[in-house]
Design brief:
By secondary structure, this protein is mainly α. The chain has one domain. Helices cover 85% and strands 0% of the residues. Helix 1 packs antiparallel against helix 2, helix 1 runs parallel beside helix 3 and helix 2 packs across helix 3. The longest helix has 33 residues. It starts with a helix and ends with a helix.
Length: 96
């Protein structure tokens, strides 16, 4: 329906804005915190790759294993928030 299309489109637009902004802010904070340029890039890259892998695996599981037509449009953004919050914290813990 039109409402589902609008919701999905809005969620996608929000995700395309929020994800790069959050990663850029975290990168700047990590540059000042770690006083390095390479380590923050590696930390943010591992979190971004983790997010992409999680999206791919969840898509495979939901569509092929469970037979759903897909996930809710808010799942990728919520997943990103949780993965970034836990991933960056754990990466800093491992690096120090």
């Amino acid at each position: 329906t039109a409402q589902q299309y609008d919701t999905q489109r809005t969620a996608e637009d929000d995700r395309m804005l929020i994800v790069p902004v959050v990663l850029a802010i975290i990168l700047v904070i990590l540059v000042f915190l770690l006083r390095s340029l390479l380590m923050p890039v590696l930390l943010v890259a591992t979190v971004a790759l983790n997010f992409l892998a999680t999206l791919g695996i969840s898509s495979l599981v939901f569509t092929h294993a469970f037979g759903f037509s897909g996930t809710d449009s808010s799942v990728p953004l919520y997943g990103f928030v949780f993965l970034v919050a836990l991933g960056v914290d754990y990466n800093i813990f491992l690096m120090s």
